Amino acid sequence: MADPYSTLGVARGATEAEIKSAYRKLAKELHPDKNKDNPKASEKFSAATNAYDLLSDKDKRARFDRGEIDGDGNPPAPFGFGGGGGGGGFRGQPGGGGFDQGGADFGDIFEGLFGGAGRRAGGGGFGRQAPPSKGANVAYRLAVQFTDAATLAPQRITLQDGKTIDLKLPAGVETGTQMRLSGKGQAGPGGAGDAIVTIEVKPHAFFTRDGDNVLLDLPITLDEAVKGGKVKVPTVDGAVMLGVPEGATSGKTLRLRGKGFTGKDGARGDQLVTLQIDVPADDPAIRALVESWHDSRPVRAHLGV
Asked: Does residue 255 carry a pLDDT above 90?
């Protein structure tokens, strides 16, 4: 049974950031899309995902460190066979406690532990049995468009069995966010495992993210900057009209409230629009204007020049 720390290659005292960094590095190396001809890589990817799932959960990690659960998140099997007088061990003793299967091999013992039969003579044997283990978790990676992540648009994912599921993205979603689909993993004697979906938010052509805010550099013309007025601006929710003040300069930032990402608290961030004056090259009218006009302000004085 794999040690999740060893699987990720981190020390037991590793920080959350170190664990996350180690998982991301392994996920990048072992992702099935990059290792289509290497089934071992897929197995290692699934193992790394399971290990990260356990260690990223503070409660599970603490229980594992205390020996209350194993690397799969299950209680350890009850191998503490008590026993009074001599003759204790794996073989049943006539007239005494223990197994009624004399000379039982380890396969019979594990069948009794996990198969639910629990055959024993009299009142001997185990006081209780470990629950049957669930099937393995299955790892998925879901690429989400930038605007969909910002607006929490529903996503559809296709599972191994070909079935599709519509997912509701969680508030605060970002690249690396994991969603657990209970019972959508591999089948097992104790029920199906889970599907672990890791989100990857795709970059956008002109939006960037800063926390829960969305940043945009917006080109405006010289006359729009001088005279001001309403200009159309793209947002993650669609285009809106933005008021540009008279005499606007490049670098001036305007705020569109509630047009950012939805944070973990449910509140949306803002869109910050930075104006960039775009002056056309070789425009005769503009050249004629500046030939007869000179701006004598010391606009670089604050730079010491």
From this structure: yes
